[in-house]
Amino acid sequence: MTDPLLRLAEQYGVETSYIDWRGRPAVVSRDTLVAVLAALDVDASTREAIARATPPPPAAPLPDAEAAARIPTARAWGLMAQLYSVRSAGSWGIGDLGDLAALARWSGESLGAGFVLVNPLHAGEPAPPIAPSPYQPMSRRFASPLYLRVPDIAEFGHLPAEDRAAAVQAARALVDAPGTETGELLPARILDRDAAFGMKLRVLEAVHQVPLGPGRKAEYQRFQTREGRALADFATWCALAEEHGPDWRRWPAQLRDPAGTGVAAERLRLAGRVDFHTWLQWQLDQQLDAAQEAATRAGMPIGVVHDLAVGVHPGGADAWMHQDLYATGMSVGAPPDEFNQRGQDWGQPPWRPDRLAAAGYGPYRDLLRSTLRHAGGLRLDHAMQVSRLWWLPAGGSPADGAYVRYDRAAMLSIMAAEARQAGAVIIGEDLGTVEPGFRTELAAHEILGTSLLWFERGEGGRPKPPQEWRRLSLATVGSHDMPPIRGILHGDHITLRAHLGLLTRPEAEERSEHERQLADWMAMLRTEGLPVEGADDEAVVAALHAFLARTPALLIGISLADAVGERRTQNQPGTSDEYPNWRIPLSGPDGREVFLEDLRDDPQVTAALAPILRALSPG
Question: Does some domain include residue 239?
Answer without folding.
Answer: yes
